[in-house]
Specification:
Elements lengths: L1 E4 L2 E6 L2 E5 L27 H4 L3 H5 L14 H8 L7 H9 L4 H14 L11 H8 L9 H17 L5 H18 L7
Antiparallel strand pairs: 1-2, 2-3
Helix pairs in contact: 3-4, 4-5, 4-6, 5-7
């Protein structure tokens, strides 16, 4: 399809558009390589069937469409009915911060934090770690295996906090100090 308008002509090649001059051959835009999708790690305790189910299914919740209204809280209903496999960092942070589905979201968050301690949700670097630490050591979702995983996450975070930009570095360093006070120097011990 050729569109003639004004002084130039344009030829459409699918979603790409090449400009055509009266003196030169069409200039083709280079195709960009698509990034390959690398799925996030999943906890070993979750099988494929569990990852395909939502928190609402796993906890037996009946969530009607629009149950949480509009605007800022509508994400909660969407996150609760999304499969565990589809939850991103922002949904994990929000669900953990609101204490919804913690026994399912905590292992997902810890496994992702082990690979990337400063995982950014919707507020910036380290906010998923902050939501995990805000649960506190008395939450029943903390098993000995999860405490050991938290210890590895905190070690990775302490070693990498110096590479962050100044405002994030200060905030996360404060979170790590608070975690040391809450969980003790060795989080593996209850």
């Amino acid at each position: 399809m050729v569109i003639i308008g004004g002084r130039g002509r344009y030829r459409h090649y699918g979603t790409r558009r090449a400009a055509v001059s009266a003196r030169r051959a069409p200039v083709h835009l280079p195709r960009m390589a698509l990034p390959t999708f690398v799925p996030p790690p999943y906890p070993a305790e979750f099988d494929a069937e569990t990852l395909g189910r939502s928190i609402a299914e796993l906890d037996g919740l009946d969530i009607e469409k629009g149950a949480y209204g509009m605007g800022g809280v509508a994400w909660l209903a969407r996150a609760l009915v999304s499969s565990l496999r589809d939850l991103g960092p922002a949904e994990l942070r929000r669900l953990l911060a609101h204490g919804r589905g913690v026994r399912w979201t905590l292992p997902l968050a810890l496994v992702r934090l082990e690979r990337e301690p400063f995982l950014a949700g919707d507020y910036g670097p380290g906010d998923v770690l902050g939501a995990v630490l805000a649960l506190g050591p008395d939450d029943p979702a903390w098993s000995p295996a999860r405490r050991a995983l938290l210890a590895r996450v905190l070690d990775g975070a302490r070693s990498g906090v110096g590479a962050l930009a100044e405002p994030d570095r200060m905030r996360i360093a404060d979170d790590l100090d608070a975690a040391r006070e809450l969980f003790g120097p060795d989080p593996e011990r209850p």
